[in-house]
Structures are given as structure tokens and as C-alpha cells.
Amino acid sequence: MKSPDLLPKNVRLELCTLCQLNCRDCYMRNSESNYCNVGGGYLTLDKFKKFIEMNPFVETIETSNSGEIFLNPDLERIIIYAYEKKVKLTAYNGVNLNYLTDSMAETLVKYQFGGMTVSLDGASQETYSAYRRNGNFENVINNIKKINEYKKKYHSPFPFLNWQYIVMDTDDDLSEIRKAKKMAGELGMMIFFKKTWNSNYIPKNITGIKEETGLDYGC
Hints:
Layout: E1 10-12, H1 32-38, H2 45-54, E2 60-62, H3 75-84, E3 88-95, H4 102-110, E4 115-119, H5 125-131, H6 137-153, E5 160-167, H7 174-186, E6 190-195, H8 206-213
Parallel strand pairs: 1-2, 2-3, 3-4, 4-5, 5-6
């Protein structure tokens, strides 16, 4: 048996591979074979309990990866169970947050869900939905506000909320980027910028993008 010091305390356990969006370059949505390899579905509460019981040394679980965790119908009960077992949950790999019930928003705060990264590529519906197809920008912003209301109610910093902005051809207007930075500050979020995985993309204003986002395209 492995020494307790060698057992992993932090793991990734994907809670849902389903997603209601149709993002332009999504590797899952663009290839049926990816769904065949990964599978389309969600982790049930019973299987989550079994995982925790079999791995009592685990302290933190990253729950997001290929899908949207808020489409998992067992998510609220999973969060409560993890809290009772003193296991911290996060979704820093990313959520789209287009759908969030009041009950779920309260559960995230009340049971101290650690934090999440909200994927928001743009600061308006037109820009956002050019890439996050089927997405509703206003819904996402309202859901962030909903979480913030419960954070105030419970005097809690949890969950920590990050705004991820992937710079690409649909959203690299500097005024849009500045607007997103302002909105993130008003919502109490840390915003960070990432390069797109499209290696052929070069910003229209390389210098301006570097000044606003810190991204260096080396040109």
C-alpha cells in the first residue's frame, strides 16, 4: 500500500460532459468521436459517494472539464455531501453559467463551493454569442449577480469567481475588452485573458491587446 504522503489529495473528477452551447471551436461538439470516447452524461450522487468512500485521502476535487456542471441534476446533493465530508469542490476549468437556479446559487454559497471560472468571451450579447453560440450574455451576468447576493447574505467569500476572456477574432476590439474589465470589477471578479488555440490568429491591434490584456504575440 502506498504511503499516505504519496496519495493524491487533489484530483479532477468530471461531473458532466453535457453542454447546452455550441461553441464554434469546441473539440467535444465538433466531433462525434469525442463523445464516443468520453461519453455524454453526468456523474450520479451514488457514484460520487462511492468515489469519496474509496478515496478518503482526497481533499480537493476539480469538477469541470468537457461540459457544463450545472446540467447535472445531482449537483446540489453532490455539493452538500462533499461539504459534509470536508472535501472542497472547484470548477476552475470553466463553466458557462447560462443556467443557474436560485436554489443552486444558494447551495454554492451556503456549502462553500470553492470557486469557478466563468467563460465570458466578450462584454455584450453580440460579441459573446459570436463564439458561445446558443449562449445568453445577460443570463450569465444575472446569474453572477445572483451568486453575489447570496455571498452577501451569508457573509461568505465563496465561491470565488473568475472571468475568463479568450481573445480571438470575434472579441478583440479594445473597447469590448475595456468594457469587460470594468464589468468584472463591478461584479467583484478577477478577470484574466487567454490566447485562442487557433495558432493562425493574430490580433488586429497587437500593441493595444498587449497593453490591455498582457498577452504578447511576439510580433
